[in-house]
Amino acid sequence: MTVAAPDFSGTWVVLPTYNEIENLPQIGPAILEQLPGAKLLVVDDSSPDGTGLMADEMAAADPRVEVLHRRAKQGLGRAYIAGFQAALERGADKVVQMDADWSHDPKYLPALVGALEGGPGAPRLRGADLVIGSRYVTGGGVRNWGVMRRIVSRGGSIFARLVLRLTPHDLTGGFKAWRAATLAQLPWEDLHSGGYVFQIETTYQASRRGARVAEVPIVFVDRMLGASKMSRRIIFEALAVVLTLRWDELRGRGPRGRQRLPD
Question: Is 190 a residue whose pLDDT tops 80?
């Protein structure tokens, strides 16, 4: 008996790039192989190494690939927001966000998207609104990281989890799958653009609006090619924003609309 391959039509993968010309030609096809029927949206911030031109060549050769060019580097969060909005405008039902440097392995994509429909990734839920590829649940982990980076990442998640009273264990990771309705309700103009803080804040905003959040274990591997874009400024920005979000809530200025999102 032949089992039909899953169809991920309506799923868009948003892939921000900046100087990823070494990674894009391999990671792009790997993503589409894991998600038959899906679309790949490359969001390039005018990479000086020619990543944008490479993405255009891929799009010309494969109708499943589209490219969104931005004039300059404006932060990872802004790149994601631009990609999210473009995917929603094009009729996406589900949207995945991930890095282009292979730290987010495409092999986990079916589990993340499947958990939105209540698949094996979220056995206790009928279907999540947001699924986080988690390093800090059973089965998850990291590789090729030094002690300090492990402390910063894990500590940042614990800090945000306690201060903001959130349930997910991995709040600083950027490998996520979203329902379109969940993304559409986020306050785009009010979100910060940094790496860690953007990941924390989007999960916080979705949770406060009643989103059902699930975690799927992943093993995060430090980037294979190129240089990391993490900085001390991004880390301190994340800490400051977490405290500000909690302070605003205490003053009654936090997110409203805590109703359950529509199915």
Answer: yes
**How many whole angstroms separate alpha carbon 97 and alpha carbon 89?**
16
CB distance 200 to 173 below 8 Å: no
| Averaged pLDDT score across all residues of the chain | 88
Q: How high is the pLDDT of residue 229? A: 53
Mean pLDDT value across residues 188-214: 88
Q: Are 137 and 217 within 8 A, CB to CB?
A: yes
| CATH code for residues 11-250 | 3.90.550.10
| Cα gap 134→140, rounded to integer Å | 6
- Mean pLDDT of all residues in 52-70: 98
DSSP conformation class of 153: H
For the chain, give the percent of residues with pLDDT over 90. 66
Containing 232, the helix (H) or strand (E) segment is helix 232-250
Residue 30: closest CA among 105, 99, 96: 105
Greater confidence, 258 or 50?
A: 50
Q: Specify the 3-state DSSP secondary structure of 69.
A: strand
Task: Name, in order, each residue with C-beta under 8 angstroms of 79's C-beta and a sequence gap of 6 or more.
Answer: 16, 18, 43, 45, 70
Distances (CA, A) of 17 to 27, 51, 113, 212, 223: 11, 7, 22, 29, 13
pTM given for the model = 0.88
Q: Please count the other Cβ atoms lying within 10 Å of the Cβ belonging to residue 2.
A: 4
219 three-class SS: strand
Predicted confidence at residue 230, as pLDDT, reads 54
- Of 206, 204, 208, 127, nearest to 172 by C-alpha is 204
Q: Any residues with CB less than 8 A from the CB of 146 and at least 6 apart, and which?
A: none
